[in-house]
Amino acid sequence: MEIVVIIALVLGILLLSRPVTLLFQRLYTKHQFKRFIAAETFYHSVVSRHLKYYNRLSLEEQRKFLFRTYVFQHSKNFHYIEVEQNPEMPILVSAAAVQLTFGLEKFKLNYFDDIFILRDDYHYGFYSRPFMGHVDQTGIYLSWDNFMRGITGQTPNCNVGLHEMAHALTYVNFTVQEGRDTSFHDKFKDFSAIARPVFERMQAGETTILDPYAATNYQEFWAVCIETFFERSTSFRRQLPEPSELQIPPSAIWIDLIVPTVEEDRKVADRERSSGPRAIRVSATKFVPTRSMRSAAKTKRSQICAKASCRSSAFCSS
């Protein structure tokens, strides 16, 4: 008789766990929304001053965008390295993530608990060139000065915030698969069917609207595609190898993301190349950590941060 009772209890728990979880999530979301309403005006003032994408949304979509920004921000731990913290920083970084994932159901990039904001270019690991940002198993790293130049349009075709969030999105969906969004995961295969031949031609020397940095590896190709799509969407759509359309969800509605393959704006490309080497935007996507490895990696975070923060103190060798 006791066995029957135990089995019945186990089955009851299994059957009720999902409805209870969903109910809890709904109640928690309502609680978050009530708190968000009190801060909505401030969020709007910050985001509307910096993101053109946000200003093109409808009022209903803007509220959804801001609420997601609020939720994303409050799901992360923000760390500030050699930079003075201000209330706008976590909002704008969160808004960059939401801009990329606005068409997705799972937008919080759940694997990443920590986001590190550094003052300017920094050194990381054994790389000699400075970094603008990178993503690895310990978190998302961004240099604030480069981030702001990107969202204010001071660096054409270069948006470090979108670039690193693009790396984080693929890291979540393909490297660790924690918080994976099924629609994005499936559509990325369609993207690759068209994009990889373009990437291979770029590696062979072909010039396109994309920054030459896209030829570094396929992860960088993806991230540069995202930057170019949002920063130069008209040119990006106009330059086609053939009338092929591909939909991926980095926006409010599923957008036709078309891979460019023809040369465009040589003057801009020549000017960027002649300006000399610039800091690297990188994702360390080849490392696939297990849960225990992730925990161990976090114990080394102070060492990584020390390397990053010494960039401006002239104690790092180049």
Task: Output the keywords.
alpha/beta; 7 strands; 5-stranded mixed beta sheet; two-stranded antiparallel sheet; single chain; 318 residues
Give the number of DSSP strands: 7
What order do the SSEs take from the amino end to the carboxyl end, as H and E?
HHHEHEEEHHHHHEEHEHH
Q: Based on helices, strands and strand pairing, what is the structural class?
A: alpha/beta
Query: Total domains, how many?
Result: 1
Radius of gyration: 21 Å
Q: Work out the helix count.
A: 12
Q: Which whole number gives the mean pLDDT? A: 75
Major sheet: 5 strands, mixed
- State the low-pLDDT regions, or none: 240-273, 283-318
Oligomer: single chain
Description:
With 318 residues, this protein is of the alpha/beta class. It has one domain. The chain contains 12 helices and 7 strands. The chain has helices at 2-50, 52-55, 59-73, 88-101, 144-151, 160-175, 182-203, 218-231, 233-238, 266-274, 291-298, 301-309, and strands spanning 77-81, 114-118, 131-136, 139-143, 247-248, 255-256, 280-283. Helix 1 crosses helix 3 and helix 6 packs across helix 8. The longest helix has 49 residues, at 2-50. It is globular. Residues 240-273 and 283-318 have low confidence and may be disordered.
